[in-house]
Amino acid sequence: MSTLALYESMSAISTQMVEAASACDWERLAALEKDCAGLARHLEAGGEPIRLSDAEKTRKRDLIRRILADDAEVRRYAEPWMEQVRQFLGGGARERSVRRAYGAL
């Protein structure tokens, strides 16, 4: 797969990730993130840099910007949910610590 095709695929997946996050479909989001990470590994393992035309460079830049914007949008949905999970898990840990220290109240 060409470098530009990899970016195109990553962009398509990142759009799906926004859709999954906005629907609070965290399992789908995780699966899509895994797919996107696999494509990123292909980019990293690409070896020799490929020369791109000016139009291809512009397209690559636009795709990267779109992927980054999608990532920011996913974080906008995911971070509040992740904070709730942290509080839920952290609250349980504090409660267990208090019980260990003072016994059942």
What is this structure's SSE topology?
Layout: H1 3-22, H2 26-44, H3 54-102
Helix pairs in contact: 1-2, 1-3
Structure description:
It is a single chain. The chain has 3 helices and no strands. The protein has 105 residues and is mainly α. The chain has a domain at 3-74: Up-down Bundle (Methane Monooxygenase Hydroxylase, Chain G, domain 1), CATH 1.20.58. The longest helix has 49 residues, at 54-102.
Please indicate the percent range of residues in DSSP E strands (runs of 2 or more): under 5%
CATH class of the domain at 3-74: Mainly Alpha
Could you please say which CATH topology of the domain at 3-74 applies here?
A: Methane Monooxygenase Hydroxylase, Chain G, domain 1
CATH hierarchy: architecture of the domain at 3-74: Up-down Bundle
Characteristic key phrases:
Methane Monooxygenase Hydroxylase, Chain G, domain 1, 3 helices, elongated, single chain, 0% strand, 105 residues
